[in-house]
């Protein structure tokens, strides 16, 4: 398979893995409006929300693994190393790019907001669930934008542009 086709599939898999957390975040926010004790519609919605909360991260992981496999294959076919051998995972890297800077700032702010909510013992669901949704999304954005796959894709796109110029 051509590297160009793999790069397109890598982009697609990364995009899907970035969209998947949106479903979990929406499901968290929907928890505000659902009361499973009421039965009927609310009970069905609580099952749907529960399924979204579990299926979304599973799909995210599957597409992330597929993207990683494509990245590793592209790297093995290239003569030039785009990432360092000891490249750290995105979960422990902060501020690795302009995009990651904004994702990391939102993550830090939402983590602080979550700590404040827990310390203040705020239990109102209309406050807690949206903050948890933002924390979840910003954590995923932090991991994604600082991750190896995203850094590789940025470096590869830059490499291709420079090769076309020269």
Features:
5 helices, mainly alpha, 0% strand, 166 residues
Provide structural commentary.
- The protein is mainly α.
- The chain is 77% helix and 0% strand.
- It contains five helices and no strands.
- The two termini are 25 Å apart.
- Sketch the topology as an H/E string, one letter per element: HHHHH
Number of strands: 0
Any low-confidence stretches, pLDDT <50, length ≥5?
none
- Report, as a whole number of angstroms, the end-to-end distance: 25 Å
Radius of gyration (Å) = 19 Å
The percentage helix is: over 70%
The shape, in one word, is elongated
Task: Characterize the largest beta sheet: strand count, sense, and whether it forms a barrel.
Answer: none
Draw up the topology in text.
Blueprint lengths: L2 H28 L10 H37 L20 H22 L5 H22 L1 H18 L1
Short summary:
This protein has 166 residues and is mainly alpha-helical.
């Amino acid at each position: 398979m051509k590297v160009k086709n793999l790069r397109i599939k890598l982009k697609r898999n990364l995009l899907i893995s970035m969209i998947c957390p949106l479903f979990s975040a929406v499901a968290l926010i929907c928890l505000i409006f659902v009361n499973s004790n009421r039965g009927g519609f609310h009970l069905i919605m609580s099952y749907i929300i529960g399924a979204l909360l579990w299926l979304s991260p599973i799909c995210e992981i599957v597409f992330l693994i597929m993207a990683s496999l494509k990245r590793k294959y592209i790297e093995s076919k290239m003569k030039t190393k785009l990432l360092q051998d000891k490249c750290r995972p995105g979960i422990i890297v902060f501020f690795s790019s302009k995009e990651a800077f904004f994702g990391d700032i939102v993550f830090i702010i939402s983590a602080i907001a979550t700590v404040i909510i827990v310390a203040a013992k705020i239990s109102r669901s209309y406050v807690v669930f949206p903050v948890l949704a933002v924390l979840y999304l910003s954590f995923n954005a932090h991991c994604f934008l600082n991750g190896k796959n995203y850094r590789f894709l940025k470096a590869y796109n830059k490499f291709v542009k420079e090769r076309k110029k020269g």
